[in-house]
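Hi team,

Below is the intake form for Leucine-binding protein domain-containing protein from Pelagibacterium lentulum. Please confirm the fields before the structure is written into the shared record.

FORM ID: S-0412
PROTEIN: Leucine-binding protein domain-containing protein
ORGANISM: Pelagibacterium lentulum
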Amino acid sequence: MDSQINRRNFFKGSALLAGSAGLLVGANGTAYASGEPIPIGQAAPLTDFAAADGVEFRNGLLLACEEINALGGVLGRPLEPYFEDTKQMGDATNVQAVQRLIDRYGVHAVINGYNLGSGSAVQDVIADAGIIYMHNDTSRGHGVLVESDPQRYFGSFQTDPSETWYGTGLLKFLKSVEDDRSFSRPNNKMAIILSAGTYASNIANTVRDGAADFGWEISLYETVNVPTSEWGPTLAKIRQDPPAVIVVTHYFPADLAQFMVQFMNNPTPSLVYMQYGPSVKSFRDIAGQAANGVLFSTVIGALQDEMGLEFERRYKERFGANAGHNSGMQSYNGAWIWAIAAALAGGSGEPGNDDQNRKVADRIRSLIFRGVGGATRFVPGIQEAYAYPGGVDDPSLGMPHQFLQIQDYTGEPDLIAPWPYGKAAFKLPPWMNG
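The structure came back. Fields below:
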């Protein structure tokens, strides 16, 4: 791999990564990655409707490999990444992609962003091979599966919290902006719009089931088919009975951008919250000014602190000013966790080397990794990242559920919560200021 990073420049430009980088260097005991390469793989949606994210998942893994190799790789062995396209991300396609990574390249680990589908189908392929799997499917189903047979799924780790945290986190966030008087609800109505599928429905159901505890009544609960660019029928129902808050748990950036463009033709006096999608730059590119004022959240993304901003600089220097570092950090984060654990365990294991990979998994479980997205620490038994706040009250022990607002679509969104990571104050959206 043609690395654009050398050891000296990496440390010079990344002093705030000294903890994780220093741990890797200490375990390696060498400044050079000159041994036999370690193949690692990624199965990502490089084409089709989620390609905006898939390309960044690829970039994140490439950058992590370059940086890790500049520090000696894993015990002197450089990382060599391979990629397979999951396209529309159905179970069959996902399985085929992961199986090719194992059969063709003998990868020691698969380090993904997210893929749709059940998730369990891929995890069975991983378990049969006895290798390590780091992913960001953000699925409660991951923990259920691992808990059902921890010996079989020993190597599967979800490097962010599950999707159910989105629902409880949103209701608490809305209460916080009411408590500080930056938002006063005009009524108690909440409209929920979701897409078919377990992920979006789990979030929507969590909001719906907890809404009454915060004084909300659900005035609309509508499932839409996706991908979609025509929001007219849904918006007609919203305009007929305007709610105080519109919650959209569908997450494809292009679809959400079209929602805002069409919403702004005749906006209702409602806060608009969208899940994850607006974190992808293509949302702002398509929506333009219609994006201003949108609230969204993500349980995995680069923080706007020293580490996160330095990562953003390196990422855009490597892949271009328009590169989406918030998506790229998902696989970047997973690669660093795996590499440090593999070095501490005495090396990684090829397919079939369960014994060595169980040692790697043990080190992953014991790590508290402070990366560009906050602290990653895994919940025993289910092997997903602890959430902050909610899962833990200490920000140094969990991954923050970040709430952001697009206040100027020409720049990056503003991080407004949780404490102590927030950098800006919530503002009423422009369509509610008249």
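SUMMARY LINE: The longest helix spans residues 51-70.

Thanks, M.
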